[in-house]
Amino acid sequence: MKTIQSKFNEEVLLEQLLDSPHVTSQITKIQKGNYFSKDQASQDNVYFLIKGIAGLHYSERLVVIADQKDFIGLDDLLTKEAPTYNVEALEECEVIIFNRHEIMDFLFSMQEGWLYLYLSEKKHHEILIEKIHFLRKKGIDRLSLTYYDLANRFGKPTKGGKILPKCFNLRRLSEIANISSNSVASFNEILKARGLIIKEATNCIVVMEQK
């Protein structure tokens, strides 16, 4: 399985899709605050996030922040129905748009494709398990882990830590950590006292090395 992961990963798959004459693609930019698509006809799209920050909304609630240089909508290709979530550009995003059905035909035509889909589904299941464990933690611990995760993935390095992108405001932090906005505000004071976060003007710095 590790051999398949190393030889047929997201980067390799992207290259093969772009080279295939049977798969159409389009590069586009999605402005901050816009959704990739809420049109049911366009729910058949699969996206590759080149750069930017995108959030997945389930039942109008922000739940997952997509990884850069990865596919959005690929992990549920094995389901019969189109995805039940909407994707919002939290910052301007540059994406490659693929047709869901064309990718399915491409992957199903080769053995590696089936194995890749299996591994992708397995990874998705593991993420769900991690989310369940995450939700069982105390609210302040969920917020701390949220800060660390977002800073590691999207933070801008600065002295003593990483600056959190401004798109991760109090409301979005509360949705991701699954706590109320009032709790985020209250816990922030505790985390500042502990030295986990530093507020400088309009910036929130997450301290990556604890003293």
Which structural traits does this protein have?
11 strands; 4-stranded antiparallel beta sheet; elongated; 211 residues; 42% helix; single chain; alpha+beta
Topology:
Layout: H1 2-7, H2 10-19, E1 25-30, E2 45-51, E3 54-58, E4 61-65, E5 70-72, E6 85-89, E7 93-99, H3 100-108, H4 111-135, H5 139-154, E8 156-158, E9 161-163, H6 170-177, H7 181-194, E10 197-200, E11 203-207
Antiparallel strand pairs: 1-7, 2-5, 2-7, 3-4, 3-6, 8-9, 9-11, 10-11
Helix pairs in contact: 5-6, 5-7, 6-7
Description:
By secondary structure, the protein is an alpha+beta fold. The chain is 42% helix and 25% strand. It contains seven helices and eleven strands. It has helices at 2-7, 10-19, 100-108, 111-135, 139-154, 170-177, 181-194; strands at 25-30, 45-51, 54-58, 61-65, 70-72, 85-89, 93-99, 156-158, 161-163, 197-200, 203-207. The strands form three sheets. The chain has a four-stranded antiparallel beta sheet with strand order 1-7-2-5. A four-stranded antiparallel beta sheet has the order 8-9-11-10. Helix 5 (139-154) packs across helix 7. The model has no long low-confidence stretch (mean pLDDT 87).
